[in-house]
User: Fold these one by one.
Assistant:
Number 1:
Amino acid sequence: MKIIDCHVHLNHYDGTPFKPLDERVQDLVNAMHASAVDHAIVISSYVVNEDRPSVAQLLEATKNYDNIGIVAGYSLDNHTHDDLKFYKECLKDGRIRGIKLYCGYEHYYPYDKRYQKVYDLCAEYGVPAMFHTGDTFSARGKLRYSHPLNIDEVAVDNPELKIVMCHLGNPWILDCQEVIYKNKNVYADISGFVIGGFTHYYEEFMADKIVELLNYAGEPRYLLYGTDWPISNMESYLKFVASLDLSEYARELLMYRNSERLFKL
Ligand SMILES: [Zn+2]
């Protein structure tokens, strides 16, 4: 079955050896190859530095791979008007597939009026706005800004906007599933549940939560496969989704159909 991983990064993270960007790209290509992943979407960070490449750097580094797409990270604190202008040009010619906000990492609610320009841009070009939701990888994050219930505000006020809640709002998956169920313009990815690989116990624990979500929210036209690689391990993630009791059609929706449609791949 075709596999689209809609959530990977080419950042360098603390505790791992530093590699230049082109080597990180090669690592991604190798990991995709090893797990038979057909397509990946790289999401840029809320900040640009030596560890975290800009959208322009990502576009350059991945230009030879037509199965690697880019979603642009945007933050109020670290990005400028010119950055957003550049994103608009990229949306116009299809070089980026969406824009991601990092609420929690930056201390603003997703319904902050200053983000509206991003939502308008995404709606205009028919691409999703992605949001970090749930636990933050950094202890400096503030959880009230990343709580999934905040996304309801944006979804209701922007019915034309397609939204992706990253990480299912973990651990607030119940709140996430209600926002998904109620708002037909909201999707969610299952990325970032684990650092490294799943243990057997944790795999079962998270699988139960996904079953509960599916029972509540129904046929998964809203659910997207993503890993958060290199934070989470691709192989372990595939084993995790293989353990889910899904119909063939539901599995297709999760693994590639929803992403294909949403990101226009
Ligand atoms: Zn991520």
Number 2:
Amino acid sequence: MGEADCTRCALHASRTHVVVGRGAPDAKVMFLGEAPGRQEDKLGLGFQGAAGRMFDAILGYSGLSREKIWLANAVRCRPSIEGRRNRAPTAEEISACRHWLERDLSQVRPEVVVTLGRIAYESVTGLSWDAQRRAQPVPLADGSGVAFPLYHPAYLIYRRDLMTVYRQDVEALRALLAAHQIPVGDIAGPWAME
Ligand code: SF4
């Protein structure tokens, strides 16, 4: 059974699509989100809608694009309250879906895993999220690369006051990519989220 028809946890029963990992199969940079929301579930694609526009702005300011990275979620089917509201995935759902995260890590072998929000960070590192330690690289347990924690883009929809802090975090990401000699393009326009 593959990722697209996975039944490893109960979320399979209510999903429309599994939002599978996608992007460049040899990407040096992986971006890891939390879980699909309503629009992602409907379309089968990661980071759509308002959070998707935030995400694309972050990528552009990093000098990256969806074609150059690997994009995946810690949990690949939508967790919801009876199909109406999104909810955070449970520990059991995160644990079940780590199978696919580990598959991606072993196949793509990224040097930098940019984690978006608490659940992505905790899923890939096994450490507790600490907002004060954002934008600081953390070695992955297997020595294959580093995690680089950022806030989840959707958080900025409600916390516009964090835009400047987030821009500085993305500038720190550009510096990290340069230190790893990972090529990036020019910054795509101004910081589009302010
Ligand atoms: S959330 Fe992950 S483990 Fe659960 S059914 Fe979907 S793909 Fe499988």
